[in-house]
Write a structure and sequence with these properties.
cell cycle, mainly alpha, ARM-like, Condensin_cplx_su1_N, single chain
């Protein structure tokens, strides 16, 4: 076919070129075989050298054949073809400008160049696509090959690196399209197929996932430029818009790539309209469709978000198209639109110089953001808070919106979503960090200036009003002339009407001057009618008056009378008030105010108003921060680590800004140093590192002083727990060498008074040194003598507070824990003759006779330190006891000799007896600890060393003589037997020797028992508390002594009128329950009874003790645990928090809470001994939140349904229904309810029961599958039917169950108040040890027992008779299956 006679049509598929089409349409004549392709390509190259680009007209079949056999062609030939085609197209693009400018170009030549252009471009683009397809397939096949191997493999497949060759091809096509090639077509209209050919190649390249990689950035830019030329010169916008929308829906890697391209087109190519078209298309997408097409929604959302970051000004004009998505179902799209609005606010609508329209747009966007802070989806709420945080950080938020946005953030702190809470805290922290008010945000500091400036503003306003009134009063003539027309009109109307007899306007006691004042006031208020009526009455009333004597009521004279009254206000007013100061009647007497002065005053007033507004905003801001601190501090112990970390960072920031309440949060975070989460622990360390280890100072000395001062402030009014936490933090810092030597040196200077300081500062320095000594004992150890000399000096009176802290500091130089068996060296001990123990003994004995309240805590740590560090501490402490007892006896003898022994009983000062018993108790307890830890550990250490020595000296033959001995050694039986022997030795010493008559401690037992047994005789509260605590310590020593005194202990615990005594004994009995569990076990109900003690101190202590005992499995957990549940609603927040923490920990122990729930529900809903309905709901809502397993839920539902049958009152029905409604029910749980519907169906007539079950239906519907909705509907229909059925079924049931209910109620104990009043001790018979239960003592009512057995499946244990529960001995079924880790001795042996 002659080149001049055909026309090349761009095909949709390559196969179309093989088919004959229309007249003169080009058709490929032959697909050449592979072996002929190299020679044909060389022929094509020769023809190109001869004819140039038009050679393609004759050799197109060669290129087509190469494309057809592309997969099979040699890589070298592919590369040669690509290089040659690039050369051909490049040559053609260079020749075309001159050809297009040639006015004499013939039609045939134009047609030839057009065909050559289409063929060249088609061939080059198809070759490019072939290379791209093969590269994509290769990369998919070799996904596991990475790095250089992958690149080398691609190069081997093609003979070159294709990714580097794409860019030149695209740049060549861009260069070609920039020419005015449309003149080659008829009517200069380029055909759509040609544009689609070029642009389609670009879109196919974009579909490759690797296009988004950084190395392909040049290719992406080349594609963007090529498409940009097509948009500008070839009307490609509509097609590009459709294609971009499609690609965003299907390719997740493209949003960022397309954003870069669209931004380029809008800025460099001026095609801003394409942004509007794309956004319009996205805005018209159906919300329901996007909720199903999550991939498409994510693509659109990412595109919009990034586009707003790139070109917010261009996007702003198209934002109206996206507003519908804010009400759509897809939260991702809502987030994207809100993010786009934020970017517009941050980059475009910022600053104070905005035009009115721009300001309105910004306010609308902010309104939308604030509204979506309450969005139904937590991810949207969280995103809004993040966006507002960015706005605040970049200081774009208008000051007028601070309060509203802060209120939103504070409200979101209570959000159920952890993510929302976290971002709310971040937003509030950003507010504090970027606040425009002050670096110190103390509302107390701001209140004073605000009040002062407000008062000043009020004075300035008053002065301005006076000035305005004075200037207005200078010219009443003008004012009268202004009102005259209205007064005249009103007068004419009144004169035309007949005068009516109305109510008298003037009182009898009023004078003419007072009436004139009233008329003037009415005229000034524009009440002309009343003024005229009053004047008319005055003319007839005051005929003798100078003004009112005119009786002529004509219009002119009446108006002149009104004018005279109005124009003379100053004189008349002063006369009426009796003032003697003449009014200014002349302008000369009135001080004139110039216009500049008026302007200056107005400016000052405006400035003052702005100042007051600023202070008011700052004060309101500070109050909001204070409110937020109260809420955030409660979130510090959340289960989510990230939230806790945010809370800690927030408190660090607000503390740095001087908010006074922040110190509370900084202290509250201290216990988190014990957290098991490394992130939380590290956050606390970082917080204290920022706040206290990095103070500002000009020198190292000044920095050290600031650091010591900061740490000392933390110790002010600090509790024991706070000090322990701070000690752990300082220990960590010291071990990491983060505390400089200058700090330690300064602390020693203050402790030794080398620098002037107060006694409290000196004491705090010793405390800090002691804390640091835990990390590095040498801090105290190297200066031990100095510290003893300074802190335990011989001056009088003694500073016991300092001495106590010195003892605590010295105690940190040795490890207080029990030494391990593998220790080679003996534990650190000081000789008995050491100066330390000499001074301690002297201070204890000398201070004994002086009533100093600080002596008792000092004495306690002195005894503890002696047992910790001294060799033979029992000797030193025995000397202390003997010395103090000797002083007490001397005092007693002295008092006896001074008075007549026949008339009076010898008296001893109360404080001496209290000090003596306290010291004896401390020595007894420390002696026990010394034996159990130090002596036992040392015996074990020496035994191990002795065994090792014997093992080394044995001959090898002797080792193998006894196989049994070897077997026992391998199994560890030898060591275990030795341990038992040592433990038995210690136990024997405690049982037989410590309290034996020959020992020092035994001498104090009769005195101690006498004080405890005679509370009426020894009634001093402090003495009773001390004696009770000492008795508890003595009981810890011996099981025999403990068993003999348990009745006395529990009598005091139950009936003492002193909360301190009951609290002390609660701690003591808790310790005894761990040491002698079998002895204390019968008394467990009396321990639980203290949970309802009337004193909050005792309830709190009981809650702590029972928490430890229950969680350590030291007491049986039965129905009495309901007493712990009642603490959840305790009026004291700390006690309620303690109970909540207990159940949180208990919920981690398998099915513990689930097993206890039936008994708890039964006891708390009991009308005769339970709690009120609202508190019951509060308790059960908390407890049922721990039921998370489906099997537990189903079982509990079944039990609760059965419980409806045995419930006796409507209140119990409602309680059970409420419990069912709080369970996380599933479909299987619903089937359980349907199976047991007969149990509760007749109770549904009660509105509360019915509402509770309806709420269950609502919960089930929310997460129900379509197939389960039928069952739910059926259940709801049955509920509604039973609700409307009436009481017939219930009456029938009550008739049948009346007898059994009466029997049950007869067995119930009488109602007991939750806070039982304390009863006094009348005699020893008031309190007896419960007797063990025997099988032959059971009640003979066998019929009742049979009925009880029948109901065991549906009756909770708490509904059965409680007599058996009072028995001390457990039955087989009540015996705990889980053994305790503590070794128990036989109960039978102790009772014998």
């Amino acid at each position: 076919m002659s080149p001049q006679n055909f026309e090349f049509h761009l095909p949709l598929s390559p196969e179309e070129l093989l088919k004959s089409g229309g007249v003169n349409q080009y058709v490929v004549q032959e697909v050449l075989p592979i072996k002929h392709l190299p020679s044909q390509l060389r022929a094509f190259q020769s023809a190109f050298r001869a004819r140039g680009p038009l050679a393609m007209l004759e050799h197109f079949d060669t290129v087509y054949s190469i494309l057809h056999h592309f997969r099979s062609v040699d890589p070298g030939l592919k590369e040669d073809t690509l290089e040659f085609l690039i050369k051909v197209v490049s040559c053609h693009s260079q020749e075309l400008p001159s050809i297009l400018d040639d006015a004499t170009l013939s039609v045939s030549d134009r047609s030839a160049h057009l065909n050559a252009l289409k063929m060249n471009c088609y061939a080059l683009i198809r070759l490019l696509e072939s290379f791209e397809n093969m590269t994509s397939r290769t990369s998919l096949i070799n996904l596991d090959v990475g790095g250089k191997g992958k690149k080398a493999q691609a190069k081997a497949a093609h003979g070159f690196d294709w990714e580097e060759e794409r860019q030149p091809v695209l740049q060549l096509l861009t260069q070609l399209l920039q020419l005015d090639i449309r003149h080659l077509w008829n009517h200069s209209v380029i055909e759509e197929e040609f544009v689609s050919l070029v642009t389609g190649c670009c879109y196919r390249l974009l579909e490759n996932p690797t296009i988004s990689h950084q190395k392909n950035r040049p290719t992406r830019e080349a594609i963007a430029h090529l498409l940009g030329v097509a948009l500008v010169r070839y009307s490609h916008m509509l097609s590009a818009t459709v294609k971009i929308i499609q690609m965003l829906q299907h390719f997740e890697h493209l949003p960022s790539v397309l954003v870069a391209a669209v931004s380029l087109w809008a800025t460099d190519y001026g095609m801003k309209s394409i942004v509007g078209e794309i956004v319009r298309e996205i805005g018209q997408k159906c919300s329901q469709e996007l909720s199903r097409d999550t991939a498409g929604a994510k693509g659109f959302a990412a595109f919009l978000t990034e586009l707003a970051e790139r070109i917010p000004a261009v996007l702003m004009s198209s934002m109206c198209f996206l507003l519908d998505h804010l009400d759509g179902e897809n939260y991702v799209m809502r987030n994207a639109v809100l993010a786009a609005m934020t970017e517009v606010i941050l980059q475009v609508l910022k600053g104070d110089q905005l035009e009115e329209t721009a300001r309105e747009t910004r306010d609308q966007f902010l309104d939308i953001l604030q509204v979506h802070g309450h969005d139904v989806n937590s991810f949207v709420r969280s995103r809004v808070l993040q966006l507002l945080t960015r706005i605040v950080q970049q200081k774009v938020l208008p000051l007028t919106r601070f309060q509203a946005v802060m209120a939103l953030a504070v409200g979101r702190l209570a959000d159920k979503s952890v993510l929302v809470c976290k971002n709310a805290i971040q937003l509030l922290a950003s507010f504090v960090a970027n606040n425009p008010f002050s670096c110190k945000l103390s509302d107390t500091d701001l209140a004073g200036p605000l009040q002062k400036e407000t008062q000043k503003l009020q004075e300035m306003r008053a002065a301005q009003r006076q000035s305005t009134a004075a200037s207005a009063a200078l010219d009443p003539e003008e004012e009268w002339e202004a009102m005259l027309p209205e007064v005249k009109s009103t007068l004419q109307q009144l004169l035309e009407l007949p005068q009516e007899e109305g109510d008298q306007q003037i009182a009898d006691s009023e004078t003419a001057e007072e009436v004139k004042g009233r008329i003037r006031h009415l005229l000034a208020k524009a009440s002309y009618k009343q003024a005229i009526i009053l004047t008319r009455e005055a003319t007839s009333r005051f005929q003798e008056s100078e003004h009112f004597r005119h009786t002529d009521l004509e219009e002119t004279s009446f108006l002149s009378l009104l004018g005279i009254i109005f124009k003379g206000p100053a004189a008349s007013t002063q006369e009426s008030h009796g003032d003697t100061v003449p009014a200014p009647t002349d302008s000369k007497d009135t001080p004139s105010v110039s216009e500049p002065e008026v302007s200056q005053r107005n400016d000052e007033l405006v400035k003052q108003e702005m100042l007051v507004q600023y202070l008011q905003d700052a004060y309101s801001f500070s109050q909001k921060i204070t409110e937020a601190i109260g809420i955030i501090s409660k979130m510090m112990y959340e289960n989510t680590t990230t939230v806790v970390q945010e809370v800690i960072e927030f408190f660090v920031m607000v503390f740095q800004f001087g908010v006074p309440q922040a110190l509370f949060g900084v202290r509250r975070m201290l216990p988190l140093i014990w957290s098991k989460e490394p992130g939380v622990r590290e956050a606390v360390l970082n917080a204290y590192r920022q706040l206290y280890l990095s103070p500002k100072g000009d020198s190292a000395r000044a920095t050290a002083q600031a650091l010591v001062q900061n740490l000392s402030l933390l110790l002010v009014d600090a509790s024991v727990g706070t000090i322990q936490c701070l000690e752990e933090i300082l220990c960590e810092f010291v071990q990491k060498d983060e505390i400089k030597p200058a700090v330690i040196h300064l602390l020693w200077e203050r402790a030794t008074e080398k620098v002037p300081c107060s006694p409290l500062e000196r004491c705090s320095s010793v405390m800090l040194l002691g804390m640091m000594a835990r990390g590095k004992p040498e801090i105290i150890g190297s200066n031990l003598d100095t510290l003893v000399k300074v802190g335990l000096d011989e001056k009088f009176p003694q500073d016991y507070r300092l001495a106590q802290q010195v003892c605590l500091a010295i105690a940190n130089i040795s490890d207080r824990r029990k030494p391990s068996l593998g220790e080679r060296e003996p534990p650190f001990r000081l000789p008995q003759e050491h100066k330390l123990f000499e001074r301690l003994r002297e201070m204890v004995t000398k201070g004994f006779a002086h009533p100093d309240p600080l002596w008792i805590p000092f004495k306690e740590v002195a005894v503890s330190l002696t047992y910790q560090l001294a060799e033979g501490p029992e000797v030193i402490c025995a000397q202390m006891l003997q010395g103090c007892a000797k002083q007490a006896l001397e005092k007693l003898e002295k008092s006896t000799s001074e008075e007549d022994p026949k008339e009076t009983v010898p008296m001893l000062p109360t404080f001496l007896l209290m000090n003596l018993l306290s010291l004896a108790g401390d020595v007894a307890l420390q002696q026990l600890v010394h034996l159990e830890q130090a002596v036992s550990g040392e015996l074990g250490r020496r035994r191990v060393l002795r065994e090792e020595q014997e093992h080394r000296t044995k001959e090898p033959k002797e080792k193998n003589t006894s196989s049994e001995t070897t077997m026992e050694e391998e199994m560890g039986l030898v060591g275990a037997t030795a341990d038992d022997t040592e433990a038995e030795l210690i136990r024997s010493i405690c049982e037989k020797e410590l309290l034996d008559g020959s020992q020092v401690l035994a001498a104090f037992v009769p005195l101690l028992l006498k004080v405890c047994n005679n509370p009426g005789l020894y009634s001093n509260p402090a003495l009773c508390a001390t004696a009770s605590l000492a008795l508890g310590k003595f009981c810890m020593i011996s099981a025999t002594f403990c068993d003999s005194q348990l009745r006395l202990l529990f009598t005091m615990l139950e009936k003492s009128s002193l909360p301190a005594v009951r609290s002390n004994l609660m701690v003591a009995t808790g310790d005894l329950a761990i040491r002698f569990p079998n002895l204390v076990d019968p008394w467990t109900p009396h321990l639980y009874a203290r949970l309802r003690d009337p004193a909050q101190q005792v309830r709190r202590t009981a809650g702590l003790v029972m928490t430890h005992l229950i969680l350590k499995d030291m007491v049986k957990v039965k129905g009495q645990v309901s007493e712990m549940a009642v603490l959840l609603i305790d009026p004291v927040p700390q006690i309620a928090a303690l109970a909540k923490n207990f159940f949180n920990e208990l919920s981690h122990k398998g099915n513990a809470v689930y097993n206890l729930l039936p008994d708890i529900i039964s006891r708390l809903s009991d009308p005769e001994g339970g709690v009120e309905e609202e508190p019951f709901h509060t308790i059960m809502k908390q407890l049922l939140s721990y039921i998370t397993k489906d099997k537990q839920t189903e079982s509990l539902v079944e039990k609760l349904c059965h419980r409806f049958r045995t419930a006796r009152t409507e209140r119990q029905y409602r309680d059970l229904a409420y419990c069912v409604s709080q369970l996380p029910l599933t479909e299987r749980g619903l089937h359980k309810m349907l199976d047991n519907f007969d149990c509760f169906g007749d109770k549904l007539v009660d509105e509360s029961v019915f509402s509770a079950f309806l709420s269950v239906v609502g919960k089930l519907r929310r997460g129900a599958k379509p197939e389960g909705k039928t069952t739910i509907d059926e259940f709801e229909q049955k509920l509604r039917a039973c609700h409307t059925r009436g009481m017939d079924g219930i009456e029938e049931l009550e008739t049948g169950q009346g007898g059994s209910q009466q029997a049950l109620s007869a067995k119930k104990p009488s109602a007991v108040s939750r806070r039982q009043p304390l009863t006094s001790v009348d005699s020893d018979n008031d309190f007896v040890t419960p007797k063990p239960r025997r099988t032959n003592h059971r009640r003979p009512n066998t019929q009742q027992q049979k009925s009880k057995k029948k109901k065991v499946k549906v009756v909770f244990s708490s509904d059965e008779t409680s007599e058996d529960e009072l028995s001390a001995e457990m039955t087989e079924e009540e015996t705990p299956k889980r053994t305790t880790p503590i070794r128990r001795s036989s109960a039978r042996r102790h009772r014998s």
